[in-house]
């Protein structure tokens, strides 16, 4: 992924993240990868996405380093899309989006999926933003500063 340095969003990490992984299908592919889906056909079956869209999104996710393409683990002629460290680091983002959706987009009587930890089978604690000293922070507790490369 190449970002145009003259773009107004080129300095914004949120904008760059959205350019790399911010569309619906990319995030759904990444979500499925966290559930151990690795093959093109498995992604397509799970998501119901058109082959051309899936192929384009997987290609982009490989280019930005979210996935590596590897030979199939069962020795077949297929290839698998395996999350890289960069890809695995998206997990808290997906969990945060999931928790927000669980809280605000479902009524109590609607069917939905929930994420449980493997060891205890319990719901996850809500993700929170905390300061370096551990204090819970909200939007009014933070501010942005511009960091210019080469300046100290």
UniProtKB/TrEMBL annotation:
Its protein name is DNA-binding transcriptional regulator, HxlR family
Which terms are listed as keywords in the entry? DNA-binding, Transcription, Transcription regulation
What the entry lists under PROSITE patterns is as follows: HTH_HXLR
Q: Which residues form the HTH hxlR-type domain?
A: 12-109
Key word Isomerase present:
no
The superkingdom of the source organism is Bacteria
Please give the Pfam families that the UniProt record associates with this protein: HxlR
Record's Gene3D superfamilies?
Winged helix-like DNA-binding domain superfamily/Winged helix DNA-binding domain
Record GO terms (molecular function): DNA binding
Q: Which InterPro entries match?
A: HTH_HxlR, WH-like_DNA-bd_sf, WH_DNA-bd_sf
Is Ligase among the key words of this record? no
